[in-house]
Specification:
This protein is of the alpha/beta class. About 20% of the residues lie in helices and about 40% in strands. It has 3 helices and 7 strands; from the N terminus they run E-E-H-E-E-E-H-E-E-H. Strands 1, 2, 3, 4, 5, 6 and 7 form a 7-stranded mixed β-sheet that branches.
Length: about 160
């Protein structure tokens, strides 16, 4: 298992995973972030703590969609008290959740289940959180999570 955060406060993981129902009944579809990332860019998506706009804690270095979801790499900033405490908490695996703050641009609701499929979203922030709405949205080495998700997908296809 690789280190969750390095000495410079850099970390990575998935802020959202495609095709899975989250705790709010949403399913983010592949490509949902494409337009927003093109228009906003990485530097205009905020890195917050617990979705609190008064708690910016770092910067995103990379936000990209891959086959699994929204892959992110960021860094906590020196001189920010909350970032310093989060660095210690992440290093000890006491907190590892990620969560997206967005506005749904195009979505459909399934009548039978009530599940909402998010086809296009306007992404404005990604937070480090204690309890992520998407269980698989976690800080970890991105390669570790991709391997885990790939194995789970392969297992589901064989059943």
């Amino acid at each position: 298992m690789s280190v969750a955060i390095d000495a410079d406060g850099r970390f990575s993981g998935y802020a959202s995973v495609f095709g899975r129902v989250d705790g709010g009944g949403d399913i983010v579809m592949p490509g949902a972030f494409r337009d927003s990332l093109r228009a906003r860019g990485t530097d205009r998506v905020r890195l917050l703590f617990q979705h609190d706009p008064k708690e910016p804690i770092g910067l995103w270095d990379e936000i990209v969609e891959d086959e699994f979801g929204l892959k992110v790499s960021g860094r906590l900033l020196d001189g920010v008290p909350r970032a310093a405490s989060l660095r210690a908490l992440i290093a000890q695996r006491a907190i590892d959740g990620l969560s997206i703050g967005f506005r749904a641009v195009r979505a459909t609701r399934e009548g039978r289940t009530g599940t909402r499929r998010l086809w296009t979203v306007d992404l404005w922030e990604i937070s480090i959180v204690t309890f992520p709405m998407m269980e698989a949205a976690r800080i970890s080495a991105a390669s570790d999570l991709a391997a885990t998700l790939g194995a789970a997908t392969k297992l589901l296809r064989t059943q």
